[in-house]
Amino acid sequence: MREAATTGTSRTYDVIVIGAGPVGENVADRTRVAGLSTVIVESELIGGECSYWACEPSKALLRPVLARADARRVPGLRAAAAGPLDIPAVLAHRDEMTFHRDDTKQAEWLRGVAVDLLRGHGRLEGPRCVSVTTPEGDTTVLTARHAVVLCTGTTAAVPDGLGLESTRHWTSREATSADHVPGRLAVVGGGVVAVEMATAWQGLGAEVTMLVRDGGLLHRMEPFAGELVTESLRETGVDIRFDVTVTAVKRKDGDDGEVTITLDDGSHLVADEILFATGRSPRTTDVGLDSIGLTPGDWLAVDDSCRVTAVSGGWLYAVGDVNRRALLTHQGKYQARIAGAAIGSRANGEPAQADRWGRHAATADGTAVPQVVFTDPEVASVGLTTHEAAQSERRIDVVDYDLARVSGAHQYARSYRGRARMLVDADQGTVVGVTLVGPGVGEVLHAATIAVVGEVPLDRLWHAVPAFPTISEVWLRLLETYRDRTRTDQDLADITTG
């Protein structure tokens, strides 16, 4: 293990990682395993957005809401699940899941894997140089022998021109950390954060109105996913308004009063809280990009090993959300494992295996990104959507199946509603995309991910037998549907040519 060299307020390491979220932690872990001295710089909490304001707290809020919804569909449990949730218990559990925003254990983990921690704000000061301003106002200059890795993630993007800089409002952080249930909540947006937070807070007792600029929810996914989620949300009492734009936001009596929202048709809506779930922006505004000729505030384009392509010398990496390849924690951690290993190999004079599916190439970012939207019903997807497939040069067959016809779904809920779609590369005979909508489908997704990443031939998938009675039986039904339809098409072709 190479030790870090230290001189006064200057230190030299093999690798400097800026950002101690899950992505930065994984990069640092991999570079240390490769024998490289590594320091990680963090200005907030170790564990990052996911641990304290996103994945962990949002799922802690959603789990009791979704479990109750599932229970209400099961004979024998409906009456028991009819009552309200224990709100203090739900919020207390959420706080436990985020360790009450205490990162002591995360810091202990870093020490345990021999990664140095420097708390403060890190900025690039030219090639391989990072200046860190500590909370006490001191400055430490770090120099990297091999790599500087930006893992700074993203922040909530809110619309300009609404006066939000002087008006209290929620972003995803406030929505996951609120200490009470608002009486009336307006949710601006129709993407993943919007639908999940609408699901959570409506289930916890808020009166929720969604204001969606587009004509549907989850517009980047298969259309039927947004349609089924819309139907369910409306059944629970959520007011969803499509094709509307917020033009003004004003609070009465300062920060504590109700908020009046003006829409583009001139109408008004009054709420107690307003959540803007309108996208993400990269945290690159104040990380010193200008010192190396890049534009502050930009996303950072990278190659498959996560090296920033606009910087010569191959020393700067951007891993996770900040490179915009896939804004998901698990994909960021996937990139981190690859980037950390690539840095280690290059530092040790070994060639990087950056070819497709090589150990130093984040190939799956472009072909097999899995995602679960924790709503009722759940939405799970991996690979291409039908729209994306249409933009490619591939010849794609689309196979749909009603999930309610699967035996395992009957066991899950008598009134199960759901749908599955499989996209098949007709020339290769492999699965290139899967979307599943229905209660519990998130636990089925990894099988789809393996099929897509492994490029498993359909002829081989026939021999992967799903257990009875489980929702996984949908694989058999999709294959049967495709086989039977293909046979029918061939029969018609034979009749025509005959």
UniProtKB/TrEMBL annotation:
Domain Pyridine nucleotide-disulphide oxidoreductase dimerisation span(s) in chain numbering: 369-475
Gene3D superfamilies: 3.30.390.30, FAD/NAD(P)-binding domain
FAD/NAD(P)-binding domain ranges (all copies): 13-331
InterPro entries: Class-I_Pyr_Nuc-Dis_Oxidored, FAD/NAD-bd_sf, FAD/NAD-binding_dom, FAD/NAD-linked_Rdtase_dimer_sf, Pyr_nuc-diS_OxRdtase, Pyr_nucl-diS_OxRdtase_dimer
Keywords: FAD, Flavoprotein, NAD
CC cofactor: FAD
Domain of life: Bacteria
Family to which the UniProt record says this protein belongs: Belongs to the class-I pyridine nucleotide-disulfide oxidoreductase family.
Protein name stated in the entry: NAD(P)/FAD-dependent oxidoreductase
